[in-house]
Design goal:
66% of the residues lie in helices and 6% in strands. By secondary structure, it is mainly α. It has a 4-stranded mixed β-sheet with strand order 2-1-3-4, sandwiched between helices. Helix 8 runs antiparallel to helix 12. The two termini are 37 Å apart.
Length: 386
Amino acid sequence: MIRLFDPWWTELRDILSDRAVLLILLGGTLLYGFAYPLPYRFQVVNDLPVVLVDHDRSSSSRQLGRMLDATPELAVAWRLTDRRAAENLMRSGQAAGLVEIPAGFERDMLRGTPVKVGVWGNAAYMLVYSRVGNAASQAVGLYAAGATAQRQQQQGSGPARAMHLAQPVALDIHELYNPGGGYGTYVVPAVLMLILQQTGLIAVAMTGVGQRRRQRYLGPEYGVWSITLARLLAWLPLQLVLLWVFLVFVYGIYDFPSRAGSAAMLWLLLPFLLATTALGMAMTALFRSRESALQILMLLSVPILFLAGFAWPAELMPALLSRLGWLFPSTPAIDLMVRSNQMGASFAEVQNAWLWCWALTLAYAALATWQLHRRRIRANSFNQPG
C-alpha cells in the first residue's frame, strides 16, 4: 500500500501545484461546460422573421398569411408584392425565409385547381431553414385541408365527412427522448463528454511532459504497473467531481432530461474517465513540450467531434472512420450518456459500450506502462559506466 501511496501522492502533488494544468482541467472544463449551452438556452428557434410576397391580394391569400403568422416558428414581418424587394431582404439577412403566393390563388382554390405556394429559406443555417420549411408546409397544408373541407360541405357532405375527405390520413407525431425538440438537449450532453475528454487529455499530457523532463518515476523503487495505477487513481477524484458538476448543475440549470440519475451515471462513466487518463498518459510520448501537447490536442478536438457519431450519423460514415472513432473514449461515453441518461436504457443495453471503455483503459494503460518501462531501460543504460 505504501508503494502505491507514494507515486499517487507524487502525481496528485504535481497536479495541484501546476497552475497551468489546473487552469486547463478545472477552469477550462467548468468554463466550457457552463458557457457552451448558453446559445441553446431557448432550445427551439421561434418567431423567425419571414417576408410574404402576395401577388393575389385576396381574402384567401390574407387568411393564409395570418395562418403563417400564427405558427410559433414564423413571424410575418413584411407583406410585399415586389419579389425583388423580398429577395433583397433575404440576401441582407433580415428575413429568414420567403413565402410567395401566386396571382390567381383564390380563384384556383375555388375551382379545385392545384396551386403552388413558393417557400424559400436560408439553407446556410440548416436549423433555420428546416424550421421555415416545416412551419410553412404545415400552415399551407392546414389551409388547403380547410379549403377542401369547406368545398366538400358546399357539395353536400357533412362536416365530419368533409374533413375526412380533405385529410384522409392524419399524422400523430410523438417526439421521443427530446420532448421539446430542442437542439440544446440533442447536442449538449454529447459535447460535455468531449469537453471532459479534451481538457483531461491536455492536462494529463502536460503533466506527463513535465514529469519526463524531471526524470520522474525512472528509479527502480516502484514497479511500472504500480505507478500507472497510482497515476490513474490520482486523476480520478478530480474528474469525478467535474462530471458530477456537469450532471447536477449544468443539467439542472439548463433543464436537460436526466433519467438515470447522477449516481448511476458516475458509475457508468467511471471507465470513461480512467480511459481518458490512460490515453493522455500514453500520448505523452508524442510531445516534446507542454505547449505542443496543448496545441496538437486542441486541433484534434474537431476531428474527434465528428468521429463521435452524433454530429453526423456513424452509420453514414465510411466504415474505417466509424471504427477509428471508437479508439477515443468519448465515442462509447457519448453512447452511454445518451442512451442511459436521455433514453432510459438499461445496463444490459449499454454494457457493450461500458465494457469497451474498460478495454480502452487496459489497452492505453498497458501502452503507457510499456513506455515508462522503455524510459527506465534507456535511463539505466545511459547511467551505466563504460
